[in-house]
Input
Amino acid sequence: MGERIRASFLSVGFVGIMSTLYLGLMWAPSVAIDAFESPAAQRIFYWHVPSAWAAFIAFAILFIGSALWFFKRSPTGWRLHVAGAEAGLATGLMTVWSGTIWGSAEWGTPWDWTDVRLNTFGLLTLLALFLVLGRRSQPDGIETRDVFSAFGLFGFALVPFTYIATRFWVIRHPGPVVATGSDGSLQSDMALVLFIGAISFTIFIIGHILTSMHITKLEQRVEMLQSEIDKGG
Output
């Protein structure tokens, strides 16, 4: 039953993500031609924003898992830490990749090192990369888990900082596009595609995290059995 649930989340989320990409490229209305330097490139927005939303969910899971392991020594917390790091890396790379496409077309450069939000989100993605590669390159143990969990705890401070960055330092990255008042607004068709994307990425990231936790649990069982076999030998 658990396997079916995980597969269902991944399948439904994947179909929704692909549908979002299609609707964003082929169906959603275009922006005003004088609003952007490259109006066609704006359509990557329907992939970029939901993937960033999913990345923030993943980093929240990473924070929760890190806290549960660091303070409670919870095995489930460690599996959440691993799943959050892997999901954060996947969605973070999606966000960065789609953002560089937009930046190249709209700004004439894929990255602006003076933009606060770009750099803080880039650091979050690099943190996830460090945690994923570090766990795979270091022997598993309490001290190793403590170190990586500490990075997960302190690194989460970048999440709210990244979220509010464009409200105070609008350099390259646009401010909020969905907000109350005059801060941002979308046409109903645009909002619908964005909503489908956000829901699809959320479903997919849940499936990704559940699957990652299950794989980590199996890996731990294999390591435990191998240890028992070695002792018996």
